[in-house]
Amino acid sequence: MTDGIESHLSAMEKGNLSLSISTNPKIHLAQKFLAELIGTYCVIFAGCGSVAVNKLYGGTVTFPGVCVTWGLIVMAMIYTVGHVSGAHFNPAVTITLSLLGLCPFKEVAFYILSQLLGSILASGTLALIMNVTPDGFFGTTPAGSTVQSFVVEIVITFILMFVISGASNDDRAIKKHGGIVVGMTIMLNVFVGGPISGASMNPARSLGPAIVLLKFKGIWAYIFGPIIGAVIGGFVYKLLKPTNKSFSDIKKINRLSFRS
User: Fold this and answer.
1) At what angle do helices 203-213 and 29-56 cross, to 10 degrees?
2) Which structural domain, as residue segments, surrounds residue 141?
């Protein structure tokens, strides 16, 4: 035992402790798949469940209650499995992160599959435990024109991805508050976009109920709108991040200041 302690102390003295103790155990792809599946299941079950209950039981949840439910469940799942999979729960987020180099391309298909499966299973569970009528549909359909909903989905998903990029993906951010900020953003987006498009912001959120209940009205707007909005939001935030050029400029200024 003392030999082990001495070896660790020796490693610390040499600055090689990271070689003797693994501080970043590897997370397997299967674990990420399971985290995304369960996380998405919980998000859709709670969020869509609040929509279904509100429609089927005389507005008992209320519209503000639905908005708060979406924000709270996303926040809870971010803190529950964010350290396992990154807590995407959304194909639009996964695609954007992959384009930004923050998610390996080889994992994208697995992430999207797990998210869709989680949404379908949650929607199936809700359909089984509730007497879902056409009026109680808990998916997303345009309240007005499909084009209007398409534009709204682009805008609110842009806001969501812009916030995710700043609060969770920027090394300069206070990441422990990321889940709260993202949850609040979703809640606010549902307040604004809910009456118009249903405020999906997530292709999986719309496809799950649509597949289970076979209601595909305007579904293209809920697939492409969030993807377009998320990609724009992620790349616009990238403009705010420091680049290698900016760092080299700072070094040059410091050298000039030192010489003077």
Assistant:
1) 60
2) 29-241
Please report whether residue 9 resides in a domain: no
Taking the C-alpha atoms of residue 72 and residue 180, their distance in angstroms, rounded to an integer, is 8
pLDDT digits (tens, 9 = 90+) for 139-191: 999 998 999 999 999 999 999 999 999 998 888 877 788 999 999 999 999 99
Please report the pLDDT score of residue 248 as a whole number: 52
Query: How many other β-carbons are positioned within 10 Å of the β-carbon of residue 165?
Result: 25
Kindly state whether residue 154 falls inside one of the protein's structural domains. Answer: yes
User: Rounded CA gap, 121 and 45, in Å?
Assistant: 9
Radius of gyration of the chain (CA): 22
CATH of the domain at 226: 1.20.1080.10
User: Residue 85: exposed, middle, or buried by beta-carbon count in 10 A (0-12, 13-18, 19+)?
Assistant: buried
Q: Are 230 and 88 in contact (CB under 8 A)?
A: no
Domain count, the chain: 1
Q: What is the pLDDT of residues 106-118, one digit of tens each?
A: 999 999 999 999 9
Any residues with CB less than 8 A from the CB of 43 and at least 6 apart, and which? 73, 74, 77, 89, 118, 122, 205
Q: What is the spatial distance between Cα 108 and Cα 91, in angstroms, rounded to a whole number?
A: 8
- Identify whether 17 is part of a domain: no
How many whole angstroms separate alpha carbon 55 and alpha carbon 70?
A: 16
Instruction: Give the span between the Cα atoms of 156 and 133, in whole angstroms.
Output: 28
Please give the Cα distance from 6 to 1 (Å, whole number): 9
